[in-house]
UniProtKB/TrEMBL annotation:
Binding site for [4Fe-4S] cluster 2: C158, C162, C165
InterPro entries recorded: Elp3/MiaA/NifB-like_rSAM, Methylthiotransferase, Methylthiotransferase_CS, Methylthiotransferase_N, Methylthiotransferase_N_sf, MiaB_methiolase, rSAM, rSAM_horseshoe
Gene: miaB
Segments forming domain MTTase N-terminal: 4-120
MF annotations from Gene Ontology: 4 iron, 4 sulfur cluster binding; metal ion binding; tRNA-2-methylthio-N(6)-dimethylallyladenosine(37) synthase activity
Similarity field: Belongs to the methylthiotransferase family. MiaB subfamily.
Cofactor binding comment, as recorded: Binds 2 [4Fe-4S] clusters. One cluster is coordinated with 3 cysteines and an exchangeable S-adenosyl-L-methionine.
Annotated HAMAP family: tRNA_metthiotr_MiaB
Domain Radical SAM core: 144-373
GO cellular component, one term: cytosol
Subcellular location: Cytoplasm
Binding site for [4Fe-4S] cluster 1: C13, C49, C83
Reactions catalysed: N(6)-dimethylallyladenosine(37) in tRNA + (sulfur carrier)-SH + AH2 + 2 S-adenosyl-L-methionine = 2-methylsulfanyl-N(6)-dimethylallyladenosine(37) in tRNA + (sulfur carrier)-H + 5'-deoxyadenosine + L-methionine + A + S-adenosyl-L-homocysteine + 2 H(+); 2-thio-N(6)-dimethylallyladenosine(37) in tRNA + S-adenosyl-L-methionine = 2-methylsulfanyl-N(6)-dimethylallyladenosine(37) in tRNA + S-adenosyl-L-homocysteine + H(+); N(6)-dimethylallyladenosine(37) in tRNA + (sulfur carrier)-SH + AH2 + S-adenosyl-L-methionine = 2-thio-N(6)-dimethylallyladenosine(37) in tRNA + (sulfur carrier)-H + 5'-deoxyadenosine + L-methionine + A + H(+)
Source species: Antarctobacter heliothermus
Name of this protein: tRNA-2-methylthio-N(6)-dimethylallyladenosine synthase
Amino acid sequence: MAPKKLYIKTYGCQMNVYDSERMAEAMGGEGYETTARPEDADMILLNTCHIREKAAEKVYSELGRYKGLKANKPDLKIGVAGCVAQAEGAEIMRRQPMVDLVVGPQSYHRLPDLLSRTHNGAKALDTDFPEEDKFDHLKARPKAKRGPTAFLTVQEGCDKFCAFCVVPYTRGAEVSRPADRVLTEARDLVERGVREITLLGQNVNAYHGHEGGLAGLIRALAEIDGLARIRFTTSHPNDMDDALIAAHGDCDKLMPYLHLPVQAGSDKILKRMNRSHTAEDYLRLIERLRATRPDLHLSGDFIVGFPEETEEDFQATMDLIAAVEYGSAFSFKYSERPGTPAAERPQVPEDEKDDRLQRLQALLTTQQRRLQDAMVGRDVHVMFEKPGRMPGQMVGKSEYLHAVHVESDAFSPGDIARIRIVSSGPNSLKGVVAPR
Ligand code: 5AD
Ligand code: SF4
């Protein structure tokens, strides 16, 4: 029998990318192959994001597009996974009756069973936070070769309850995977050709599946021959402990790039966000990190227009950014999320949010560009990932996560070489093989 076809569309964060891979692999065991074309699919799965309103609304407009497909192919199964599934549950099927199944992020191992329950137009829904660990029950990754970079989820959920954020509700309480399972999965990835692993967690530096915390896990991973690079994301400033700071100084495989969101620079707003740290705490932390690893590139997340943010509060965020100098950053207008404390508070007008976001992004772009331009003339280590758009070109990432293009046919994906940066463009660097 010809294999059935599965089309997965992934929204949102890197954890969803990882989950989608794992779901595709689990469905492989049920006779499904993935396809890049929804019109060829026997099953369509949307792996969704609920972090901001726009992200959540995309799901419904995407579902609207599948109406015709379902009319032509009544056996087509349509599923919604991810954080919108968790947050809205059966409401999704009320708004879009063609949806056959809804599955929350902690129940992905139950997907084959849920699918088998959708015969004859029946609906299946699972948004539990089950006792069992989905990763123990999700089918193992098949041994097929793969590219040189991979994500590996080590921690999920969050207990911080920032006043704007849906994650503690959609992903649940903080849970860490035991280190031995993470190490087994990492060794398997390396056997399949992976040379760089990015450890994922909503609050990854709160990881406690190893007695030495995240730093202990990183050092254990660093022992794996063939694994060349380790990264992790996303971290909370309050969980940046001494051991993890020290690892940035002396663990060669840990890359000098850290995503450490602060969200805002005004202590009043930080307090109302329930962040439990001040701007000064954050700046001191950055100083300690840079004392340990002077060339560390920092990245952050910022929210503008949080309820009750004044122009003065906003300026405090701008001052903090000026003090830190970020190598990259993500910034967002505050978006009201149902069920979170901040959604109930007096809101900043939309045009004010737009204006602040523009000014903030202009500052971040200038900083980003300045740090990138400063790489010209320097040598970096690039791990090549794939051919570039131009023939004879390869693209890879420096240790600082800059995309670097090199004109050479000497490299294959996974190779690491010392590259001298010769120019800096809007989104990437160009380099040549560094002279010995
Ligand atoms: N509105 C805007 N941005 C948000 N984020 C989380 N919740 C919201 C919200 N309600 C941002 C934060 C977080 C990133 C993943 O998304 O900056 O770090
Ligand atoms: Fe959301 Fe991160 Fe705050 Fe947790 S720490 S509530 S995931 S923003």
